[in-house]
Amino acid sequence: MAKKDLRIGLVGVGFMGRTHTNGYKRVSDFFPDLQTRPVLKAVCSRTAATVNAFAEQWGYETVETDWKALIARNDIDAVDICTPNNMHAEIAIAAAEAGKMILCEKPLSRTLEEGRQMVAAIEKAGVNNTVWYNYRRLPAVTLAKQIVDSGKLGRIFHYRANFLQDWTINANVPQGGQGTWRLDVDAAGSGVTGDLLAHCIDTAIWLNGSITDVSAVTETFIKERVHQATGAMQKVGIDDACIFHCHFDNGSLGLFESTRYARGHKALYTFEINGEHASMRWDLHDLNKLEYFDHRDESIVRGWRTIHVTDGDQPYMDKWWVPGLSIGYEHSFVHQVADFLKSLETGEPCSPTFKEALETQRVCEAVLDSAAARSWKNINAY
Ligand SMILES: NC(=O)c1ccc[n+]([C@@H]2O[C@H](COP(=O)([O-])OP(=O)(O)OC[C@H]3O[C@@H](n4cnc5c(N)ncnc54)[C@H](O)[C@@H]3O)[C@@H](O)[C@H]2O)c1
Questions:
Q1: Distance between CA 104 and CA 184 in Å, rounded?
Q2: Which of 221, 326, 362, 364 lies 20 to 30 Å from 36, alpha-carbon distance?
Q3: pLDDT of residue 1
Q4: Which pLDDT does position 228 carry in this prediction?
Q5: C-beta separation of 212 from 249 below 8 A
Q6: Are 104 and 129 in contact (CB under 8 A)?
Q7: What number does the ligand 1 atom closest to the CA of 333 have?
Q8: Both 181 and 107 in a single domain?
């Protein structure tokens, strides 16, 4: 049977533009049962030379230099937002109003208010949508979800996550513009809270349920940086580091830390969950492995075991190679494309939807408010 085309219009050709395009290009080969196939119809970036080169390299049929022109086209079914955070709301709301499906990068928005407007627009339009919290779709992380849901851990006491980097320690790193928009509060909305902790919060809520209240501390170690747009030294408005603790609805305690000042760490995302019977931990640097400890094991062989998540009966792995052979970071995006296409067939939402991703925005906003006020914040107030 002929497959249905899903005509993609991609906005933004940086890091995520590449990972998503790779996902669109690989998915039909490795998920042959899907009834829909993505078609690289159009790509948009502001500079003609850049967008032409990207289209040529990756195989897009056409280009645009204005995202509004891309959205106005009637040969685009789904708009994929891979721009800095300050463009998410405007593009998503316009795309929803034009009746397009939307795949939006994380964090959903810079602020909770922006996120709420995006959710309202999506719900009014009734269009399919998803937010690229891609770490959920690494097989070891999906397996962690299956293990939690099976009840093997028993009552959960602790959830702990870190996301550590070191790329902004040098005070000469500028803020704003290509490559360093993450340091500009107007473009990014926040620092590590929205950029890195948002991933940790999304995974945590998915694995361990809602967060009820938070107490946070943030720090901006380098107070002024040159802004690329003005060439002037300007105040830095983002959080360079953030640590918060929290309660989950299930009674467990959470502890989260993120920084761009942990010398030696490039992208160390780790989490650990401690339950009554068993614990689990995962590390992005060794992403195919899930570590598991079960207190019910016979005492003489009891200890942490490493599950190499590559068997065909483990999540997504029947689509790839043979047991024992690893896959990588990029596969999480292929999996998200596959799940999005599947959701079009089943009618089930592709998690996290905008509405689900708004939960992470609520926590992020409460974390930043808590740090500013030096007090606990209840998520229900958000
Ligand atoms: N899921 C993840 O793990 C992950 C990882 C990295 C980034 N992200 C998110 O993806 C988004 C993009 O991040 P990135 O690392 O790809 O950034 P990037 O700087 O590498 O790329 C951004 C792209 O957007 C383009 N752009 C900016 N303004 C535009 C406009 N008005 N119209 C058209 N194009 C425009 C830029 O030219 C650039 O091509 C951010 O929201 C970021 O938080 C998510």
A1: 20
A2: 326
A3: 74
A4: 96
A5: yes
A6: yes
A7: 1
A8: no
CA distance 51 to 75: 19
- If asked whether residues 112 and 146 sit together in one domain, one would say no
Please give the DSSP secondary-structure letter assigned to residue 193.
Answer: I
Token pair belonging to 367: 């974390």
Q: Cβ contacts of residue 170 below 8 Å, gap of 6+? A: none
Residue that is written with structure tokens 């085309």 in the block: 5
Low-confidence ranges of the chain (pLDDT < 70): none
HEC assignment per residue over 249-277: CCCCEEEEEEECCCCCCCCEEEEEEEECC
How many CA atoms within 13 Å lie on the side-chain side of 119? 19
Give pLDDT tens digits for 151-181: 999 999 999 999 999 999 999 999 999 999 9
Measured distance CA(3)–CA(35) in Å, rounded: 5
Is 83's C-beta closer than 6 angstroms to any atom of ligand 1? yes
Asked whether residue 156 falls in the same domain as residue 120, the answer is no
CB-based contact 262:245 (threshold 8 Å): no
pLDDT digits (tens, 9 = 90+) for 90-137: 999 999 999 999 999 999 999 999 999 999 999 999 999 999 999 999
Question: Token digits for 46?
Answer: 């502001």
DSSP state of 164: E
- Token output for 108: 């959903």
Q: How many domains does the chain have?
A: 2
Looking at the CA of residue 134, tell me the nearest atom of ligand 1.
1
Length of the chain: 382
Q: What is the CATH number of the domain that holds 371?
A: 3.30.360.10
3-state helix, strand, coil in the chain (%, to 5): 40, 25, 35
- Say yes or no: CB of residue 18 within 6 Å of ligand 1: no
